[in-house]
Design a protein that fits this description.
The structure holds two protein chains of two kinds. Chain A is mostly beta strands. Chain A has three helices and 26 strands. Chain A has helices spanning 2-6, 10-27, 32-39; strands at 50-53, 56-60, 66-70, 74-77, 80-82, 84-88, 94-96, 103-111, 117-124, 135-141, 155-156, 165-166, 171-179, 189-198, 208-209, 219-221, 227-236, 240-250, 263-273, 277-286, 291-293, 299-300, 303-304, 314-316, 320-329, 333-342. In chain A, strands 18, 19, 21, 22, 23 and 26 form a six-stranded antiparallel beta sheet that branches. Chain A has a five-stranded antiparallel beta sheet with strand order 6-8-13-10-11, with no helix packed on it. In chain A, strands 7-17-14-9-12 form a five-stranded mixed beta sheet, with no helix packed on it. In chain A, β22 (299-300) and β23 (303-304) form a beta hairpin. The longest helix of chain A is centred in the first third of the chain and has 18 residues, at 10-27. Chain A is elongated, with a radius of gyration of 33 Å. The two termini of chain A are 58 Å apart. Chain B has a single domain (8-152), classed as Immunoglobulin-like (Sandwich). Chain B has helices at residues 2-11, 14-19; strands at 22-35, 41-46, 56-65, 72-79, 84-89, 94-97, 111-113, 119-121, 129-133, 143-152. In chain B, the strands form three sheets. Chain B has a five-stranded antiparallel beta sheet, with no helix packed on it. A three-stranded antiparallel beta sheet of chain B has the order 4-9-6, with no helix packed on it. The chains are: A mainly beta, B mainly beta. β2 (56-60) of chain A pairs antiparallel with β4 of chain B, so a sheet runs across the interface.
Chain lengths: 343, 153
């Protein structure tokens, strides 16, 4: 599956054929099983469905016989309800940094109506409720359905040209890409709203577009106004790391002179400040010329690490010491120690 | 014009009525709630120009004895259309079916069998046919109306 997604065009073709199938299913109203399957949708009876009602009655005649009568048939056509919902799927602020480009916010746009409908998308980057204005540079459709932004594979949205067409209850992920101003500072938040509007029309609930509904009926604006939006936030996380290196010297005589045979204990402290966290933080320190690494002396947070390049976080490389600290949150520090002997 | 008259004669229910002593007509209205300028909500019943999922429908069955003798044991049944969820009978005396009209009863007497073999009391949404049995004969020239409600699924 993963391999398929990586092949350009493959996932996209799949998506197109799926949409086409859905259109066929919705138009083939005569096929009872398809109708029944669609009626189970939360969006309700598919647009264009015809509701027929009639009653029958029986009664006894004075002569002793029985008669029956069937009423006229009342037919109602279910019109297309235009409804849409937009929801951020980021689960919180998206971490970014000053001057960053192509920072991704993710939204899910769902057709909450009962007919196939296209939606016009707009990103609003100059809205209140934030500390800086990101610059929304593009809207991208998750056209390969991977759930993440795949540059080059996902389709860049062009209003009117590739409005996402959604079957009732279907949804699509939309990515909003923004640039973060260089002047944004640590901890500041920037907001971008994604707006989705039914292409057929929008407005006050109940607004009717005669003859424009799927299946030949009218299209009627539903409770959402056929116009929905949600906000996403970027948060500037200007985490930075400071390394402090110190040394303790113990000479062979119990003093602190630097003579051959003196043991130097180096202490490296990495402190992360700001907000957010730093991923894949590493410490590498070369063994100074004129000294030799003392085997089995590497520690991380006081716990010994083996010299070999193995499963633990550090090793002696032959010329220096390397320790992987992983992701370190702002405000935290990691301490690495090792010893050398002066030659 | 001649064609029109022929069509009209074909479409008019008079021929059908002549065969039946009791006439039965079905009508569907949609309930609309409008809020006036002072914020007062008014509910009105309208002819359904447009229906969408969630709309409340009122089904009206009108009967009239056009004959000269009473009609007795009058039983009228209305299967609920597939795309409509039954929402209760407005006229008293209704019995219900959840099996397409094979068995009838008060709602409390009906139960639905779950997939795991257990059963639960039937709800309005389970009803797929409604029926009235008139206790009194319909006298010649008189008639009445029976109503039930449904919601477009």
């Amino acid at each position: 599956m993963r391999d398929l997604r990586l092949m350009p065009g493959c996932g996209f073709a799949k998506r197109e054929s799926r949409l086409r199938l859905r259109c066929m299913a919705a138009s083939a109203l005569a096929a009872g099983t398809l109708c029944a399957a669609q009626a189970a949708h939360a969006a309700g009876t598919p647009a264009g469905t015809i509701i027929n009602n009639s009653a029958t009655a029986t009664y006894d005649l004075p002569s002793g016989g029985q008669d029956s009568v069937t009423s006229n048939i009342v037919s109602l056509t279910v019109d297309e309800l235009l409804d849409v919902s937009v929801a951020s799927t980021d689960g919180g602020d998206v971490a970014t940094f000053p001057g960053a480009a192509n920072q991704v916010l993710t939204f899910r746009v769902t057709n909450a109506g009962n007919g196939n409908e296209s939606f016009v998308l707009t990103a609003l980057d100059t809205v209140g409720g934030d500390d800086f204005n990101p610059s929304a540079t593009s809207i991208v459709i998750d056209s390969n359905g991977s759930g993440v932004y795949d540059p080059g594979l996902d389709s860049v949205y062009v209003a009117g040209a590739n409005n996402p067409l959604l079957a009732p209850d279907a949804s699509v992920l939309i990515f909003v890409l923004s640039s973060i101003p260089a002047g944004a500072t640590d901890g500041q938040r920037g907001r971008v709203d994604l707006v989705a509007v039914a292409a057929t029309g929008s407005g006050a609930p109940g607004t009717t577009f005669a003859g424009q509904g799927q299946g030949g009926g009218d299209a009627v604006v539903g409770a959402t106004g056929a116009d929905a939006e949600d906000d996403g936030f970027y948060a500037v996380s200007a985490a930075s790391v400071a390394f402090v290196k110190s040394a303790d010297v113990v000479d062979p005589f119990g003093g602190a002179t630097r003579v051959p045979g003196s043991i130097i204990t180096y202490r490296l402290v990495a402190s992360v400040s700001g907000s957010g966290s730093l991923a894949n933080l590493r410490i590498a320190d070369a063994i100074p010329a004129g000294s030799s690494f003392r085997a089995g002396t590497i520690t991380l947070e006081g716990a010994p690490l083996s010299d070999a390049a193995d499963a633990d976080a550090g090793e002696y490389t032959g010329s220096g010491v390397a320790v992987r600290l992983g992701t370190v949150a702002a405000g935290a520090a990691r301490t690495v120690t090792f010893q050398v002997a002066i030659d | 014009m001649k064609l029109f008259l022929t069509l009209l004669a074909f479409l008019l229910p008079s021929a059908a009525l002549a065969q039946n002593q009791v006439a039965l007509t079905s009508e569907v209205l949609v309930e609309r709630t409008t809020t006036d300028a002072s914020g007062v909500a008014r509910v009105s019943l309208e002819a359904p120009g447009v229906v969408t999922p969630g709309d409340r429908l009122v089904f009206v069955l009108s009967y009239r004895n056009n004959g000269t003798a009473p009609a007795s044991d009058f039983v009228v049944s209305n299967p609920i259309p597939d795309s409509v969820s039954f929402d209760g009978a407005e006229s008293p005396g209704a019995v219900y079916s959840i099996d397409g009209g094979r068995t009838w009863g008060a709602l409390a007497a009906l139960s639905v069998r779950n997939a795991d073999g257990s059963s639960r009391p039937a709800t309005l949404a389970d009803v797929n046919s409604v029926q009235w049995r008139l206790a009194q004969p319909i006298s010649a020239g008189s008639g009445g109306e029976l109503r039930f409600r449904g919601i477009v699924k």
